Amino acid sequence: MPKQNSVSRHIVLTSHPSRVGPKPIPIKWGASDPMERGPVIATLTKQAHRNVIGTHSGSYAVYRALAVARGVLQSDHRADLTNTSPVEHIGPHPSWFDLEKIVSVDPFGAIVGEVFTSYYEQGYDIRPTIAITKAHINMPELQEAVAKGRLTIDGKIMKSGGDLVVTKAAIEPVWYLPGIAKRFQITEGDLRRALFEQTGGMFPELVTRSDLEVFLPPIGGVTVYILGDIAAITDPNKPLAVRVHDECNGSDVFGSDICTCRPYLVHGIEVCVQTAQEGGAGVIVYCRKEGRALGEVTKFLVYNARKRQEGGDRADAYFERTECVAGVQDMRFQELMPDVLHWLGITRIDRMVSMSNMKYNAITEAGIEIVERIPIPEDLIPQDARVEIEAKKAAGYYTTGEVLDSNGLGSVKGRALTD
Ligand SMILES: [Zn+2]
Question: In this protein, which residues make up the domain named GTP cyclohydrolase II (predicted)?
């Protein structure tokens, strides 16, 4: 018989609070003193320390489980965080301590190593949920913008060859469940029950541990790209450009022509560079919400349904085809999106590079002013993406141009699957 470690064979359930021993450190969401707020402790090595539901790394926790199961990762591995601290400081901002403003991000997530040192000394395994680094990025369309004179190389924000110097932050979601429920105007009980049931019962604590109010959901996070001076983001005298972009792998990475995602993203970066070069800052918020958070399988099924329907792919049936397959038109829930803008301390956006009414409404209802909205330039819209853009404009997307009626929408056609 293979030798078995009796400790590792023992399955530890966290589904009910311990009747004995110390209670976990409470989290007082919204408190301004980090020690009063309390650290987010999602460690799996010391069950008694856990004060949240779920674990770190979002959906990648499943790969971590595989690595442990295969024996290539020690289940009690503790991250060595030497030299991992943020390269730029963000916050604290007043919005960090406002229960109405941030409920889906841990504002202290990047600086746990600074603010919770005493807990580290006591042996607590506290991990950052935000990491901030620097990079050079480059996209071929930006070199074209330089060649056409729309962008200039200044040697600081944009270097020779079109390299952009950026600060970027990766953010894992940390949900304060009472705040999320309030944001969606539902009860916390209904929220917990749906999260429990719709994940196949993955997190029993959602229904058994009402004492734990913070959940690390197994979903994709957000990446923020910042161009220009970080201090300009919150300086009322400096201009700020923002694009909030929801992931579209097919277009963003592979250049698919069925939508406007990559061209609009690159245009957003271009506006960010221009604004940074004027002494302001530009912010790209990239959210992992593939296919309106319906996932790529649903998205590709919808593409087929659109292109095979009677009359072919048409703008007047664009949303209907999505709803037939997914049951809804959209599951991105932009209501949570402004949290990351509040984490950055944004109170005014001078140039909002987005036509989405859902994003606009969410941001302005969150108390952030939007001065100007910048639609995608007509010449950047791929031919096969006309169906999408005309349907969206007719549904309320911002435009300075014409909005088609139902007859007009019926005549906007996309390419057939066989072409
Ligand atoms: Zn797209």
Answer: 227-375
Q: Are strands 240-246 and 348-352 parallel, antiparallel or unpaired?
A: parallel
CA separation for the pair 375, 359 (Å, rounded)? 13
Expressed in angstroms and rounded, the spacing between residue 365 Cα and the centre of ligand 1 is 26
Q: At how many degrees (to 10) do helices 296-308 and 318-326 cross?
A: 130
Stretch 365-376: mean pLDDT: 98
Residue 419 pLDDT: 86
Residue 242 CA to ligand 1 centre (angstroms): 18
Q: Which residue has the higher pLDDT, 51 or 13?
A: 51
Residue 19 annotated as catalytic: no
Query: Can 332 be counted among the known catalytic residues?
Result: yes
The strand pairing partners of 227, in sequence order, are 166, 282
- The beta strands (E) that lie in 164-289 are given as 164-171, 175-176, 214-216, 222-228, 240-246, 281-287
Please tell me the chain's helix, strand, coil percentages from 3-state DSSP, rounded to the nearest 5: 40, 15, 50
The string of pLDDT tens digits covering residues 269-282 is: 999 999 999 999 99
Query: What DSSP string runs through 87-125?
Result: SS-----GGGG-TTT-SSS-TTTT-HHHHTHHHHHTT--
356 alpha carbon to ligand 1 midpoint, in Å?
Answer: 13
Judged by DSSP in three states, 35 sits in helix
